[in-house]
Each structure stands twice: as structure tokens, then as C-alpha cells.
């Protein structure tokens, strides 16, 4: 599993590039625009071919966007799932009962391992030094003993993907490793190849 998180700021060619990434095999896109309004989220989605909506997980405006678009589901960043407190399971169920997927983020493997609520998958970061954030140092998490589907984030590109697989990650998530590359499409394809080779070797 390879997932891609959107850049926080949208440039003029992002939508075109995103369509090329979908065509290249991207099936897990995390739509994260923390500073964008609901209408700006709608405008972004309106530019995407609805064929690809089932590949999109939104980080913001989950109720509105799942009601209005046939997207895959929602992602709860750590702050957001913590805010739910004891109501988290009920909140998650309000989406899964309607057929939407719900994923979640963590920064400590212990918190992920202890999470009693069931999610489609979990993101854990930072595994390696982040490409898009120069001050974020990697922690080299080893998750082989956690029996959950975990995707590693932070410093992920074609070169670091095999090491992430060795550490027990069943998926990898990229941001800077693709969007900051000279050729984002080629960078994604190289990640695909590296992940498939490393994962097949592991099993």
C-alpha cells in the first residue's frame, strides 16, 4: 500500500499532476488542506474526475464531504481522534456504518498498539527524517510486533521504502518524496517498484 498526502498549499499544476498519479496507479490519496475553507475543498474535488473519488480520504470537513462526494472516507489526525475521547468508537462507527473507511494517525507506537477502536489502517510518523519538514527527525520505529495494518510516514521515498518494509510497515506514505521531486510521476513509480520488490521479498 502506497498513500500520498496532498501538499498544504495548492499550485497551478497540482490537479493535473494528481490525475497523472491516479493514472499511474495511485489508489490512496489523503486530501489534506488544513488552511482551506469548505468551499475551497469543494472546488478542489470538483476538478477531480469522479472516477477517482473512491481513492480519496479527506482530513477535513468529514461530514460535509462524505455527504456530498462519493469519496473513500475520512482520516483522523491524532489531535482529532483524541478530541473525541470516549465517543471515538461511536464517531468512527457513524462513518463506517455508511460504508466509509476511517484511518488514523499516531506519533508513538505505544499509542497505536493500545488503540482499542478499529481503523482501516494507521499512519505512524516520523519513521525517517522528513523530506518536507527539515526540522523533523526520524525515529526508526520498528512495528513488527504490532498486529495492525500500519503505514509509515516521514522521509519516505523510493530509497527509504525498502527499509520501512523491513521495519514491519505494510504500507508507506509520502508527501515531499513525491511532490518535491523534479518528476513526481517518476518518483511515485519508483516508490511503487521499490515497495513491491521489498514487500514480495519479505513474504
From TrEMBL:
SUPFAM superfamilies: Thiamin phosphate synthase (SSF51391)
InterPro entries tied to this protein: Aldolase_TIM (IPR013785), ThiamineP_synth_sf (IPR036206)
Protein name per the record: Thiamine-phosphate pyrophosphorylase
Protein's organism: Dokdonia pacifica
Organism lineage string: Bacteria, Pseudomonadati, Bacteroidota, Flavobacteriia, Flavobacteriales
Amino acid at each position: 500500500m502506497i498513500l500520498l498526502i496532498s501538499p498544504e498549499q495548492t499550485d497551478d499544476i497540482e490537479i493535473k499532476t494528481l490525475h497523472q498519479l491516479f493514472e499511474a496507479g495511485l489508489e490512496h490519496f489523503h486530501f489534506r488542506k488544513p488552511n482551506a475553507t469548505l468551499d475551497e475543498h469543494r472546488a478542489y474535488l470538483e476538478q477531480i474526475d469522479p472516477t477517482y473519488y473512491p481513492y480519496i480520504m479527506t482530513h477535513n470537513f468529514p461530514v460535509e464531504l462524505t455527504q456530498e462526494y462519493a469519496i473513500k472516507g475520512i482520516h483522523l489526525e491524532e489531535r482529532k481522534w483524541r478530541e473525541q475521547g470516549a465517543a471515538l468508537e461511536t464517531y468512527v462507527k457513524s462513518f463506517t456504518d455508511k460504508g466509509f473507511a476511517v484511518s488514523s494517525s499516531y506519533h508513538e507506537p505505544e499509542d497505536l498498539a493500545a488503540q482499542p477502536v478499529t481503523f482501516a489502517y494507521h499512519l505512524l510518523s516520523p519513521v525517517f527524517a522528513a523530506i518536507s519538514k527539515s526540522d523533523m527527525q526520524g525515529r526508526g520505529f520498528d512495528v513488527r510486533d504490532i498486529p495492525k495494518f500500519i503505514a509509515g510516514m516521514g522521509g519516505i521515498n523510493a530509497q527509504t521504502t525498502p527499509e520501512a518494509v523491513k521495519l514491519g510497515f505494510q504500507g508507506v506514505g509520502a508527501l515531499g518524496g513525491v511532490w518535491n521531486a523534479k518528476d513526481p510521476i517518476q518518483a511515485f513509480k519508483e516508490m511503487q517498484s521499490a515497495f513491491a520488490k521489498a514487500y514480495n521479498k519479505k513474504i
